[in-house]
Write a structure and sequence with these properties.
By secondary structure, the protein is of the alpha+beta class. It is 32% helix and 28% strand.
Amino acid sequence: MYTSKCPEEGDSQGVRTRGRQRTATSAWLPAVHTYPMPPVLFWFLLYSCCLCQGRCHLYERLSELNTEFAVKLYQTIVSRENRTNLVISPSSVAASLGLLQFGARGNSFAQIEKALGYNVYDKTVESFMRSMHRELINFSQDTSIHLACALFLQHGTPISTQFTENAIQWANSSLQLTNFTEYNRTANQINQWVTRNTGGGIEMLVPGGHFGSGFSQLALVSTMYFKSKWKTKFSFTETQTLPFISTDGSVVKVPMMHQTAEVNYGQFETPTLEKFTVVELPYLGNTVSMFVVRPSDRSTPLSSIESNLTSKSITIWANSMKRIKMDVFLPRFKLESLSDLRTALPALGVSDLFDPRKADFKGISDQRNLYVSQAIHKAEIEVEEAGTRGSGVTAMVLLKRSRTPVFKADRPFFFFLRQASSGSVLFIGRVTNPLH
């Protein structure tokens, strides 16, 4: 950067002094000349700086909106379905709604926009999502993340060229033609698509005959599959069978993994003063971390922590936890959940999509009575010692007591997988009985 500094009037002594110093050192240090910055360059740099700051601010806002949607979706499904164990992928559901938003018009469009908090036609949104989704479809030997969404349309439905172009460029999405009157064939087609687009991680999404009759139908399908290795692995030899206190107070024996490592850890409390602890366990590459949230007091129900969850609280946890060496105990578990979004999304204000009288998808096709007849979401996650799927015999050993602080997930907890670059919640779920 060019700089210019002029001495004040009467500062001739200062000028001479600087001149002598420069002469004395000129034998080994070249003279540095400063020039006034050209006005055009100054304004260009100022504009670039403001533009960069503005974009960063917008990205932060989009990250907050994504997290807010994730929290609301999770809380809605937990409260409505009353499941003991649950896992969903809010990022996958949001990508699917974004795909639908391209084809929605009128109130249908407005409801999706309000639920997500953004407009998919906004260039900043497009740039942010493209960056986030680029990471989600990359995979390596150590990490595999597959996000996919598709819109299955009835054969013979005339499709807008513009919508097709938008769909191809949005996330890892696609349009698929099918015949909903052939129930088993449609189910097989969807299952095959899911298997291909999750790297074989999810083999079946819907059973045969899942679809009802009707000609003008849309089926929205979203999936997320994640497989990775821990940055610090849990040792197979240190896995023990330990008690886990379920929601109803019953005690079950579960394989409890253990590691001693430096982790991010924090102690917090809700507005109603229920205390809880949070630990962050990173995966290889530090692109994704699992946050495990557990009530501090055994008598505090998990729901009291979940109900106070917000996008801001997640950001606060991520930014305020301290690095500390700890003994971490986490039960081995595997979760898979199939969710019908036709019950969850209306609770978030997205209802017109499923009503043949109100749905407006003229952006997809001019054909009337086009509505979403199915909205299916499936997520799977498996947590093991290495972080990946595998099998092995675990030796049951007793760990020696030490003065190292301990985090033990021996009671109901919830967790979420957060993408470091975007702050987006890829998965969020709860475990109230690791054996179920």
